[in-house]
Amino acid sequence: MTHKPNTADCFTVQLCVRISAGQTSFPAIATDKAWNGGAVEDFLSRQNCGHSLTTGALPGWSLALQPNGSWAWNIADGEKRLDYLPTPVRQPLDDDRWHHLAFSVDPQQQQARLYYDGDNVAIYSLAGLGSCYGDSAPRIGTDATMQGALLKGEIEGFTLREGIASPEEIATAWTARNPAKKPAMHSEKPLNKIRVLAWNIWNGGREDGVEEGVERVIDVIRDSRADIVAMQETYGSGPRIADGLGYYFYSRSSNLSLLSRFPICETHDLYDDSFRFGGATFALAPGQRLDVYSLWIHYLPDFCNDVRQPHANAAALIAAEEKTRGHEIRDILKALSPRLRDKSRTVIVAGDFNSPSHLDWVPQARTLHRDLVVEWPVSRTMAAAGFTDAYRQARPNPLTDPGRTWTPRSTESWQDRIDYVYYNGQHMRCHAAEVLEHHPDGWPSDHAGVLATLQLT
Q1: Which of 191, 233, 312, 386 is the most buried (most CB within 10 A)?
Q2: What are the tens digits of pLDDT across the range 345-362?
Q3: What is the pLDDT of residue 37?
Q4: What is the pLDDT of residues 277-291, one digit of tens each?
């Protein structure tokens, strides 16, 4: 194919590479743009982290060798860029062994699938990304015509072809070279329960340190034994967290992600704001699939402040909610409704709703809520759409189990339950639920996590 296919075209890149030592120059392994020669850029901010080259902002794609010895994937349209930066602990390249790298770009499905040694380790949403084809013919990093420092290693079997290679095809390409090394797959037997965690990790989990904070996030998830994590405020930490757990990773946006011990079958670009909503279908076992969506809706109005006002009342609180979160949740559920009508599907929506629940602000719990009873519209709308609040199903008494998730970092703030795991389907029930808010070295987020153990029937 030409190096500038029609923007509607899908394509797949594959190659094998062997490298015996790392390089600080971040050299290309394969690219269709002027990758080499860019300056190393530190992305660290409240909403991102990691290092890559400034040339990653140029239109086109690149596979590259990180200075830490792992690989990197980059794609950009000249304005927006996406970077996958895994870790050498799980995905090394500089170990003098042959490794298989591959990725596919599917503009129609709005996704890029990324593979390491035959395993589909990550999927990135391409929502908002324009034409991503570079200004040069694709070349490998050992090509003497490349500018800048060349890759010190061997590359074999480089191909770029039209169309999307399936995960099975990619796995076969790897096992043909390494028959003893099969990529991880789903469970062989149907599961009867699954643990789902909803957690806003607060600016990538880095508020207590770029290294320490993220390690605490990994600790919490590992100790929880969560099978699937619906994460908010991922902000660049997702690949490292997923690698620390050995999980598959789906990046819906800088904010939203899903991490899972189970492979990702499909991704769902149903809602036009990827910062607020997105999901995927996971292959739990042969014939057993589960749809999970990660959600974050507007942080305003600040109900924590509003409920403390001297003349706070239910009508005013509900009216304020309707201006932002109320209409957002209705729009999201409208986009999701075709999936909900399919009764063969079980759907989970989990995340940071930034809003309390009508199941908590009930007459018997007036003492917790300034003597107010409030039919909070977001939770009401979820219930009307057929969703069950997993935590409140397992722990129905808001007096004995308030389940507050905001905020374990400040006792002075109004405390309430604003993070949820909701499910919709005839073949699921919540077996147990708990709030997670403790780590021996300090809780890394301003949100607690909510963990639901769900029975599958």
Answers
A1: 233
A2: 999 999 999 999 999 999
A3: 87
A4: 999 999 999 999 999
> Tens digit of pLDDT for each residue in 168-215?
999 999 999 888 776 666 678 899 999 999 999 999 999 999 999 999
- Could you read off the pLDDT of 241-265 as tens digits, one per residue? 999 999 999 999 999 999 999 999 9
Any idea which fold 193-456 has?
Answer: Deoxyribonuclease I; Chain A (3.60.10)
| Domain extents in the chain | 11-177, 193-456
| Three-state secondary structure of the chain | CCCCCCCCCCEEEEEEEECCCCCCCCCEEEECCCCCCCCEEECCECCECCEEEHHHHCCEEEEEECCCCEEEEEEECCCCEEEECCCCCCCECCCCCEEEEEEEEECCCCEEEEEECCEEEEEEECCCCCCCCCCCCCEECCCCCCCCCCCCCEEEEEEEEECCCCHHHHHHHHHHHCCCCCCCCCCCCCCCEEEEEEEECCHHHCCCCCCHHHHHHHHHHHHHCCCEEEEECCCCCHHHHHHHHCCEEEECCCCCEEEECCCEEEEECCCCCCCCEEEEEEEEECCEEEEEEEEECCCCCCHHHHCCCCCCCHHHHHHHHHHHHHHHHHHHHHHHHHHHHCCCCCEEEEEECCCCCCCCCCHHHHHHCCCCCCCCHHHHHHHHCCCEEHHHHHCCCCCCCCCCCECCCCCCCCCECCEEEEEECCCEEEEEEEEECCCCCCCCCCECEEEEEEEEC
pLDDT at 185: 63
Q: In CATH, what is the architecture of 11-177? A: Sandwich (2.60)
